Amino acid sequence: MMTVKEISALTGISVRTLHYYDEIGLFTPTKKSEAGYRLYDDKALETLQQILFFREFDIPLKEIKVVMENPDLDRNQILQMQKNMLVAKKARMERLISSIDDILKGENKMDFTVFNKTEIEEMFQAMLEHMPEDMKELSIKEFGSIEQWKEHYMEVVSREEMQKSYAKVVEWYGGKDEYLSVAKKPVSKEVAESYTKRIEVILNKLITKINCPVDSFEVKELVAEYGFVMKQFSQIKDERGMMLSVAHSYQDPMVKSKIDEKYGERAAEFFAQAIEEFYKE
Description:
The chain is an all-alpha fold. It folds into three domains: about 1-70, Multidrug-efflux Transporter Regulator, Chain: A, Domain 2; about 115-185, no CATH class; about 190-280. About 70% of the residues lie in helices and about 0% in strands. A three-stranded antiparallel sheet has the order 1-3-2.
């Protein structure tokens, strides 16, 4: 067992703060000595560690208390949730550090080479090999033949505006080689469907928080999970650009209409604001 002073010395948290955590029921002692001193065991220390992880995100104590007392969340779920949020925070910090390094070197612009003809041909071939047969047949029927389809693809992807768009996507993957590697080995239909279902579950949970502030923990928690799943699904290095692009897409009238129809009025606007708040610099 450890006393309050020993806990304070170990963690750097003041005795006064630990007393306050006890008063509000956030971090209570394992037991009290006969003299009335607070005593804590190893399990209590683990609880305090989880609280400190949440405090890294400046989450209000009352919100941390709600999460810690949630009977539907076990220790591993809480730790995974915290890990996802810390990974997102780490990625933002690394991006800022990298930007500062580039500026110090006089290289304040990211330089991604656009795809050449050979690479575009490889992208088309990979798309062709992994496309479902029904979609492939429809495309061949539309263009007349695979060669005509390929010619159209090459022409479209080679356009300046498309190359600029690809440059942004390449940034999400951390480089052109990384993007091409993923493009040549896309996930299977079954895996894609599994990720799609996971995203729908997250959005259905997120829409229930529409009346909560977008900077509240409960909203940030779900956006962090959304970003984490999107990162896994797309196999990208940093999901921030993609997620902000998703948020921007919700402003498109057609997309907004479909999202609002599926998840309820103002859903698209809420999702966009929640994502932008979470991924802001």
